[in-house]
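Workshop exercise sheet. Pairs work together: one partner reads the sequence aloud, the other fills in the structure field after running the prediction. Swap roles for the next sheet.
Pair: D.N. / O.F.
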Amino acid sequence: MWHNNILDTIGNTPLVRLNKVTKDIPATVLAKIETTNPGNSIKDRMALKMIEDAEKSGKLKPGGTIIEGTSGNTGMGLAIAAVIKGYKCIFTSTDKQSKEKFDALRAFGAEVIVCPTNVEPEDPRSYYSVSSRLEREVPNSWKPNQYDNLSNSQAHYEQTGPEIWEQTEGKVTHLVAGVGTGGTISGTARYLKEMNPNIKVLGIDTYGSVFKKYKETGDFDKNEIYPYITEGIGEDFLPQNVDFSLIDHFEKVTDKDAALMTREVARKEGIFAGNSTGSAVAGVIQMKDMFKEGDVVVIIFPDHGTRYLGKMYNDDWLRDRGFLKDGKLTARDIIGKKDVQEIITIDCEKSVLEAINTIKSLNISQIPVTQKGMVIGKITESDILNSLLENPSIKSQPVKNITTAPFPFVDLNTSIDRISGMINKDNIAVLVESEDGKIEIITQYDIINAISA
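Structure field:
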């Protein structure tokens, strides 16, 4: 038997038991593996549903353009459907999202516009606002608005909920899912609670999102909002698809715990899933006292790990954020092994001759250049030599005239391997801000000294 097109393969995803990461939980814990959808995420379900409902209502017309704000997965579902149905796509997203997500969207012919993360939703630069503006400006366009379009949750009421009920033979006792647009958890919960009102629905939230406090107090507290790294869950507003009456409890999970558990799931269960999966599994472990023997806990695994190769599955990315520590030396260790000495800098208005005298007297080969105390560039012996050969009178001119790009800054947790890779004949040092706010310089000599100490 064959399918008429790729859209016919959406849904009917497998339910897989978790064994190692959840070994301390007395219940049976099952993962709903949504990566088997053609776009490798659960968002394929609601993307197709939103399009089909829009076609029926006349909002989406033949040859039209689909414009949506998306972190990538909804965009992928929309883009795949658009290919089959003959629509164009323009997506807006945030600079927090992984590059792999944008590359995947562009692979299907979509246009992607990247917007800043740390702005209010009402800000004209936000990805919500930009998508709304484009909908007004682009002829024959339609914005699905996955956050407030109730076709989103309806897709899960019609598909995801019934699948879980059937696959568990009605034995499911708990549903666990990350809450972003709210469509997945609300639609699935509505069906399951209709089948059995005693089923508990547990939403996974992140620090920096408003959901948990709003559920518990009814207070939309803007002080709860701040930037976070975890992708796919949490929000700084209340989407209409989030039905708080269906969600019994919200559990917050840190960025670090979410990132590390994402890797654990791959290494211990062989399931290559995304960041929000790590958050959901970490949340279940935090809530383990809620479960007892005989319970059947279903966790939604929304998307695939390939979209996070540059982030959660990248050791250097994790080290830069202090999420991962191992036996390798870091910038902090290198600085700690250096002789205590003040970093030498030179103001950009000082003369080149003063820079030459400083280099000679201190027997150094490079100096960071500052302006009002801020590092803006550098000069090296070779910079000075090349400038003098071209124009001997350059000695009387200000240093800023021969300043080149600054040494790159690294985090204190940056590994020695990465620092070594950044230092070469074109870039002979890196800078790092110490814990007391001082700027330190790391050269090849400092690395050798740290290794041999």
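Discussion prompt: The chain has three domains: 6-41+150-320, 44-142, 331-452. What would you look at next?
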